[in-house]
Amino acid sequence: KVFIRLGLCVCSPMTTGAFALLLLITGVASLEQYTPDKADWDTFYEKAVDNNEKNTDHSPDGVGWIDRDDWQPWDGTFYDPTKYTKKDFASLICPGNTVRGVYELFDEHKPFANNQRPTKAEVDNWHAIVLNHVRAMVGYTEEEYEITPNKCLHIRALWSDERAYSRIWDTDEYPGTCEGSTNPHCGAGFLPNEEDQKAYLPDGIDYCPKRAGSEGLFNAAKSNIPWSIKWIRPFCQTLGSEGFWGGHTGPWFHRSQFGWSWRDMDPLNRNSNAGLRTKWSGPSGTQKYEDPDITNGKFTVNVEGVNPNPRFPGYECVGRVWLNGGAESATDCYTRVMDDVTCGKRFMTFNNGGCACYPTDMATCETQMVAGRLTWDFEAVSSSFDGVLIDTGKALTRNSLPYSGRVCPQIIWKTGAGDASHCLQKIIENKYEDCGRNFVTFNANGGGCACYPPDQETCIRTETTGQAGRQTYEVEVDPSYEGPPTSVASPSATPSRISSVSPSTTPSMSSPSATEQCQDKKNKFAYKNSKKKNCVFIAKISTETRCNVGTTRDSCPVTCGADCQCFDTPGRFQKTKTKKTSCKW
């Protein structure tokens, strides 16, 4: 196929059919905009680049927390998902925080005329390019697999968000409300009348009707992630958790039309999640690959737009209500729960013929282990919580973190959870004062959830204890996390981390351990064994020791400066009659 850029004729073998019309034709024709003008993207620009010390623009090169070497090229090899485990396939497509080949794809198409502020039309066009790119990596290059944006689907996604999260449509004309609803898809079918649609419709469209399709909800993105990669977390987390054949994953590879709506879930929080509501429609491309793990599908929810796998296998929530008659499969159970007005729409439990739902006002699941129970949470799962995460994709071992069957010293059992990620979520949301943010342990044998005190800064093999069923993870900082804006410190005769500095740029459960005044920029350098680290790592714990490794003092002169050593005081003192703590705490 041939397309024109800057007056040049360029041959592009990967460009086929209608998708050729989507490619950026700089200086020749303007792009179509699909996201409606009424969609508010102001905080996305402000948080990601305009007022963000990490990112310089919305291109892959402008993302301050992804190194150039982290981007892996795609050599044109088609990846057959039947040849890999779910984890290995996801790692091929999504290495780290990236998608294979996207760096070169962006450089080839140059989709943004101004990388510091791409237009809605340019972002819409880029989303079409990347969707067709991930399809090409699995050999979906024929015309039936091409996907294009649709204006009415984009508008309908926005209407659904407005119905769900605002009260502007709660009028006599549209009875009912989503306020207080526990149904994550509340508002999915909302459609204003012809008169009320006019304010949203572009030229050439008189009315947007209902049409067959599906909807997906994703909460893994962050509002402060630039536009070139904001879509990556929703896609990659879904691919990793559900696999190629998942209900939420399927439309990314098979539907022919899409419409997206992005929503800042907390405009006042610089590290808020970005909700993505996807509308998919049009014919689906033929499924080339048969799922080798599915036989009769009895224990999976085989519905497009729904995660087929239970979030909490082996658990049920408190408040479970069995439905008379049960269900033959998890899919049948899902249908019963969604059709029953007395059931909440967020949680469901299936047990080899038994089908249970939960109260309509239930928004959290207090798990309890029960053999044979499979429990679904139909709300999208966040990738991080208050700036921290655990990497559940890493293999558990008995020799190094994350550990299988081992715990760190000073373990503190706090609550129950359904899995390790759920454990971290509950530790963070409950804001336990005696919990640090270095490690968490989940007990797969009983659902217990534990944290460790802030002064538990290491968990090497020799100091751990063997305990069957325990899964211990290191808590990691979400690289997209942005700390509070720098403020001017008040004068002080003696430099101090306590009284005269601004808050830490690294999320912490305890008092700030590193400040803007005592912390360099976050450029990475060769630390130990050629591993790349940044000055945030040096400032986090054991600063005095880490500053004496290799070229650290040259790379982090501020962090390792004399005026900044006070924070690293190792001494402990009596905080209460029964507890000692340190100045770092």
Global mean pLDDT: 85
Separation, N- and C-terminal Cα atoms: 62 Å
Structure annotation, total helices: 13
Percent strand equals 15-25%
Highlighted features:
disordered N terminus, 13 helices, alpha+beta, 19% helix, five-stranded antiparallel β-sheet, globular, 585 residues
How would you characterize this protein structure?
Helix 2 runs antiparallel to helix 7. The chain is built from 13 helices and 22 strands. The protein is an alpha+beta fold and about 575 residues long. A five-stranded antiparallel β-sheet has the order 7-11-9-10-8. It has a five-stranded antiparallel β-sheet with strand order 13-17-15-16-14, covered by helices on one side. Strands 3-5-6-4 form a four-stranded mixed β-sheet, sandwiched between helices. Strand 1 (about 1-5) and strand 2 (about 10) form a beta hairpin. Residues about 1-30, about 485-505, about 510-515 and about 565-570 have low confidence and may be disordered.
Helix-strand blueprint:
Blueprint: E1 2-5, E2 8-11, H1 42-50, H2 86-93, H3 102-109, H4 120-136, E3 148-149, H5 151-165, H6 194-197, E4 213-222, H7 232-242, H8 250-254, E5 255-264, E6 273-284, E7 312-317, E8 321-322, H9 330-339, E9 347-351, E10 354-357, E11 367-377, E12 388-389, E13 403-407, E14 412-416, H10 420-430, E15 439-443, E16 448-451, E17 465-474, E18 476-477, E19 525-526, E20 532-533, H11 535-540, H12 543-547, H13 552-555, E21 572-574, E22 580-582
Parallel strand pairs: 3-5
Antiparallel strand pairs: 1-2, 4-6, 5-6, 7-11, 8-10, 9-10, 9-11, 12-18, 13-17, 14-16, 15-16, 15-17, 19-20, 21-22
